[in-house]
């Protein structure tokens, strides 16, 4: 069982499955949601752009929460969410910076949709929404492959410091404006929609980054396969989590472990040995002959979970 390796978990907890593309993040997320659903109300949310959850669980459409029996499931439609965000961005720019038209810089509006980082921002918004959901004891978030996931986890922290700088700058501009208006003895409106928006964004990102680094609220599960690149990404993810959020993952899962190759001297043995040295909880899952393709088969997979680190330690003796 995966939950046996997680230790004490508080209610209203969010789990992230992270790792290289194809290692089994979605499979582990489903398996975990299945287990957690026996302990409390559980939501499985997938931010995987390939929408594999729809296929695995037969979720009829993205963008809405559906019950899949024992737990609820939600598949983000990243393309649609990103399109909506771009439209909103264009609307905001038009409203907040009407001077663009005067400056003949309207082109800025039409290229807003090509702004880098919109995908990341769509996921960050969804994450804020997920943390705000009440009514679930556990939420499992199936993340996209490493690059996009790390940007999503790192950006809220970065945005807070950028936004604080922009808020300072805006306050200085407003103070100058206020002084000029005062000298000209004009009526002064101290409300400013740009400042309001900056403060609103800063508070949203601050709330999210605080939750992301709170181990009572959030746990990270890093999935790998016994191959060099997936293992390299485990180390990269751990480094980022430590540097940005000051946290360790709650569990490392080594998925697709071929039973026959766990002999001393093989590459698989060496990778797993090094992986076992990382001082957090470990769980290993066997490589099945046939990929699990139903909820039932994923549940069966969790029964193959074993402690390969203990086995390796015994082999060494
Ligand atoms: N232990 C296992 N043995 C055999 N096949 C497995 C095992 N775990 C997962 N698979 C299969 O491996 C494939 C990739 O798994 P999965 O979709 O969960 O990976 P992922 O990390 O979510 O991929 P992506 O990065 O594309 O979202 C799937 O076909 C899945 O059924
Ligand atoms: Mg996936």
Automatic annotation (TrEMBL):
Annotated GO MF terms: ATP binding; ATP hydrolysis activity
All residue ranges annotated as the ArsA/GET3 Anion-transporting ATPase-like domain in the record: 14-260
The organism's place on the tree of life at top rank: Archaea
Residues annotated as transmembrane: none
UniProt-listed Gene3D superfamilies: P-loop containing nucleotide triphosphate hydrolases
Pfam family, one: ArsA_ATPase
Alphabetized UniProt keyword annotations: ATP-binding, Nucleotide-binding
PANTHER family assigned: ARSENICAL PUMP-DRIVING ATPASE ARSENITE-TRANSLOCATING ATPASE (PTHR10803), ATPASE GET3 (PTHR10803:SF3)
Family, similarity comment: Belongs to the arsA ATPase family.
Protein name: Arsenite efflux ATP-binding protein ArsA
Species per Swiss-Prot/TrEMBL record: Desulfurococcus amylolyticus DSM 16532
